[in-house]
Amino acid sequence: MERIRTKHHVIMILTAMFFALLLCGAASRPVKAETMKTETAHPDGILQNGDLLTEQEEISVDKRTQARSGADFEATVKAGLDNYQAANSENKVTIDVSACGVLGTEVEQKVTDFLNTHPSYFYVKNSFSYSYAGDNVYNLTFTLTDTPANVSKMLAAYDTEVNAIVKSMDTNWSALEKALYANDYLAVHCAYDSGLTKHSAYDAFVNKTAVCQGYALAFLELMDQANVNCELVTSQSLNHAWNLVNVNGSWYHVDTTWNDPLTDRLGRARHKYLLKSTNSFKSETGDPSHAADDYVYTGRQNDSTASDTSYDAYFWNSIDNPFGYSDGYWYGNNAGTITQYQGSASGLTESKEVKKLIEKWNVWNNDSGYWQSNYSGFSLYEDDIYYVLPTEVHRMSCDGTNDDVVYSLTEDERGVGYLYGFKISQYGDLTYGIAKSPNEETTNKDIDLCGHSYGNWITEAATCEGVGMRKQICAKCGKTQSEILPALGHSYQATSKIAATCTTAGCEIQTCGRCKDTKVTTIPATGHQRAKTSTAQPNFVKAGLQKTICADCGVTINQKALAKKQCKKGQTYTVGNYKYKIVSPKTNGTGTAAFAGVVKDQAKVTIGSKVNIQGASFKITQVSDKALKNKKKLTAAVVGTNISSIGKEAFSGAKKLKIITVKSKKLTKVGKNALKDIYKKAKIKVPSSKLKQYKKLFKSKGQKRTVKITK
Ligand SMILES: [Zn+2]
Ligand SMILES: [Zn+2]
Ligand SMILES: [Zn+2]
Q1: Which is higher by pLDDT, 265 or 186?
Q2: The domain 572-710: what is its CATH number?
Q3: Which protein residues have a CB closer than 5 Å to ligand 2 (ion)?
Q4: Residues bordering ligand 1, an ion, CB closer than 5 Å
């Protein structure tokens, strides 16, 4: 039962880090052309998963031969699963079976067969995946039912139980004696799981409760360990599983589940379904429990395999107590007579009557009536025979001497009922049951026959993922009391980080300070969090654009065009400190505009020849009515070369206006009161060629007589 327990810690960490890097995109691998495919199989017919056997699919002889060549599949899978410590963080174990020549068409059946014939791999889930290329299977990937650390604990408990049972089997026993002992052990110490969820040998041995698959797998395990040939039998119509065992050269049916009475009777073990022929099993006479015509067998067995009828009507059919063994002889309680038997390859032969138990079990509260049978039960512990009477537990030597009372029911217990059965564990814990009648379930209590003497607690510390255990061992009998210490959980600390951007995920690698396990946490992309909008305004000649970008990464989030501005007559625009009014709304450079005033009063105003408004050039051909009216700061004004008309009251009230320089030679109109109340000694300077003409034009526009028109 020794298993390889290799430490693969460092490799696991390195692998985790490698994947972490891959995830982060910090490293990349070239993708290689790969013809390997992977498939997941969910095989039916694995007993520890609660299934029953299915008829094996027919595989052609050629392919079987091909599959049988190459390395040993069974040994390879075994070695791989024994090395379960190498499981990855998802508890998956991958086994290289490329040298075994297994075909994709048969791998499911081979795995099913493997698990059904190796009950100690109870820690493997039934679904598995395999990689194959062409016909050949390369890898098998199994998933453990728990973390490697916890599997290790389960295996330790499993091995302890199995080893203890196997050790208590005498190596000189015949196969029949070994089968008898295993049957009795399971019937006494395992109880049927009425919850119908416990299917494995682990459940039968460690949890001590299982359904038929668990009993059958546990029996198979014990027979394997004891070198007795054993197979499984199931029936879909009976929804049941049991065993076929080879004793003295012949095969027989053994059903340990049915040999364990339901409901569980304390210390009872039946033998009615031990070493039976197929005919006897299938016969409905008086017992239809196994009447079905759809038995499916593992190995090369079939209905005609178990044809020997030697034990169909054997004496033990009526004995429902376990047998015990001491110093070369078997002992049992045969209907109240404790009897010694000589064991052999072919059976048990009565050799001596040890003691007759004559006491009757009275009907409760009716001392004149009693129940028909003997309800003592039977057990043999450390070479002493134990039996019970209605109110006492007895122990005696195997020859019937030294009979004494180990325990007598207390007054309180005598008020509850009589003793109906008992059992003794391999650690000397005697459990007795009290009930008012044999048809009632017993109330059970324990007596410590060993006088356990426990040493100090031995602590196996819990790890991050694995439970720990503390145990104390009885120095006398080896009984172990254990307590599970819960797993500690990882203590992760961030070791490196790649920040997320707006559009790509980042990641954080955390390492456990205790076990160095690494964990990669993806940091989701942030999305564009900070939007920034910019606008290129439209004008008369160009459409505009409103654009929203991410302030962090610059990506354009959205944009929209803004239509060109319409140029219309009469619209007023400000350019710098000056205001203009559209006169001729052409935007091709031939449009015209009027100077319409200033935003803020200022000393000097120069009206140019052209102005650029909203991207288009306009000739300035007019000075609007009242354009500079009442501008108190105005001292000098220039009238540009394209002005043909100065509006009414254009400079009116500009009291400090001392000089108006007219550059235009196109002036044809000056409006009423255009110069009213400008500075009394102001000068209007005009082009010399126009002096005469403009003197007339500027005459009587509201100005004082002292205002001069000059060249
Ligand atoms: Zn002890
Ligand atoms: Zn850890
Ligand atoms: Zn962004």
Answers
A1: 186
A2: 3.80.10.10
A3: 464, 490, 512, 514-515, 517
A4: 450, 452, 474, 476-477, 479
